[in-house]
Each structure stands twice: as structure tokens, then as C-alpha cells.
Amino acid sequence: MAIQALNSAATGLRALSTKIDIVANNLANAETTAFKRSRVNFEDLMYLSIKQPGAQNAAGEIAPAGTFVGLGVRISNTQLDTEPGSLESTGRVLDVAISGGGFFKVKLPASVSDGEGFTRNGNFFVNRDGDLIVGMGDGYRLEPPINIPAGVANDQINISEDGTVSYLPPGGATTPTVAGQIKLHNFINPQGLNLLGGSIYGRTEGSGDPIESTPGEDGAGKTLSTFLEGSNVDPVKELVSLIKTQRSFELNSQSIESADKALQTIGNLRRF
């Protein structure tokens, strides 16, 4: 049985080591715009059945309970926490947060996630071609594309709660011109999204196809200009989780030490 204890404790060390990696990544991204924390879910492994419940003994009596020895633990999955982060006022017109559900759609290289990515990071810039892009990595163009003509200053751009992007043309015009419409995309199972890095996610068979909506309609959130969504990581909770995981790691190490001592005792029996 000491051998089984060694193996069980080893599975615990492997699983807890992975959880420490996940928690460390959450803490590292506590200040990353629109970052979503991950949670580790565990499940027990198979059991060694020594006696089945309901088994009869020699006297014909029925055992009310069985005897099972577990064989350890493993990580069943890492679950994405899609709860929104706090909204932070920036005063910059092209900073856009989503108040509610939904993701912005951005264009990725064709070799990555079929060229489509989804993010809640609304830190937008205008590139040299006048297209709105997300200001991370090499800059990914917002889809559907929205173009701002040359000569339009940021303070002449307006982004409404329904995602309508308009601007005042240069030359003293007073009537705004509509540049385009920001669309939001929801998923039936956002936990099934593929994490691509840079707070960008890709669709999978598990997440289902994106459902496009106008902000404020069909369950989609509203777009708030001059705001950015912060990380949803709570550093205090993550630190508490890290301490608990470290203690569990130490307990599994002690289980290995106890099993090793038991094996030493068994090995020393041949001397007597």
C-alpha cells in the first residue's frame, strides 16, 4: 500500500504544481487590460476496489459499505473566468470598454484561429491607413473595419453606447459623419474559447460560433468611450489560493516521506 501512497502523492504534486503555475500567471496579469483569470478544476482518479458494497461474507451477511483506495488526482480542466473587470476611466476617446457581455472581433493572420480573434481590450488606435486597430501586439484591425479619414483629431471622434462611430470632418463642419458600427460577439460557452495570448481568444468547437449583435441589443453589452476594462484578478484571493496550494503541496510531500519510511521499515524486516 505504501507504493500506492507514493503514486497518489506524486499525482497530487504534479496537479498542484500546475495550479501554482496558473495562479502565478493570474497574479502576473493583475494589471493587464481586460485579462480574464483562470481557475483549476481537479478530479479524482480511479479507485482500487478491495471490497464491493453489498458483498456477502461467509455467514451470508451483506456488507453495508465497501473498501476503496483512491489512486490520486489529476487536473480535469482550467476554466476561464469571464466575469468583467472593473472599468477604469482614461479620458481618451478611443479607449472603449464593454459594459456587459460580448467581445470585439479583430482580424488575425490567416494561420491563427482562421484569421479571427475576439477580445474585450478596447484600447484602439488609428493606423496609417485610418483603420481602427487594437493597440496590442502588431495591432489587429477591428472587424467589421472602421476607417477614420486623415486630418480628423481624436477629440472630433465620438463613439456612442450603441457602437456607432462618428466624426466631424476637417474644415469646420458641424454635422457628424458616421464612420462605421462596432459590433459585439457573444458565445454560448465562452469557457470553451482558445486562449491565444494578448487577451485575445479564438473560437473552438467547444465555444460554438460567435453570435454578432449591435451593442445594447440581444444581450450584448454597451460600448463606453473613455473607459477601459481592467483585469478581473483579485490579488488578495489569488494570494490566499497560492498559500493554500503551497500548503497542500507540502502535505503531499509529507505523504511521500511517510510512505518512504513505511517502505524502509518493510525493507528492514528481513534483518530480524
Please, could you describe this protein's structure?
The chain is an alpha+beta fold and 272 residues long. It has two domains: 2-81 and 234-271, no CATH class; 87-229, no CATH class. Helices cover 22% and strands 30% of the residues. It has helices spanning 2-28, 235-268; strands at 38-44, 47-51, 67-70, 73-80, 87-89, 96-99, 104-107, 116-119, 124-126, 132-134, 140-143, 157-159, 164-167, 177-181, 184-186, 194-197, 200-202, 211-213, 222-225, 227-229. The strands form seven sheets. A seven-stranded antiparallel sheet has the order 9-10-11-7-8-17-16, with no helix packed on it. The chain has a three-stranded antiparallel sheet with strand order 12-13-14, with no helix packed on it. A two-stranded antiparallel ribbon has the order 1-4. The mean pLDDT is 90.
Overall structural domain count: 2
Shape call: elongated
Following the backbone from N to C, one meets helices and strands in this order, namely HEEEEEEEEEEEEEEEEEEEEH
Q: What is the C-alpha radius of gyration, as a whole number of Å? A: 27 Å
Q: Beta-strand level of the residues, as a percent range?
A: 25-35%
In short:
The chain is of the alpha+beta class and 272 residues long. It has helices at 2-28, 235-268; strands at 38-44, 47-51, 67-70, 73-80, 87-89, 96-99, 104-107, 116-119, 124-126, 132-134, 140-143, 157-159, 164-167, 177-181, 184-186, 194-197, 200-202, 211-213, 222-225, 227-229. It has two domains: 2-81 and 234-271, no CATH class; 87-229, no CATH class.
List keywords for this structure.
single chain; elongated; 30% strand; 272 residues; alpha+beta; 22% helix; seven-stranded antiparallel β-sheet; 2 domains; three-stranded antiparallel β-sheet
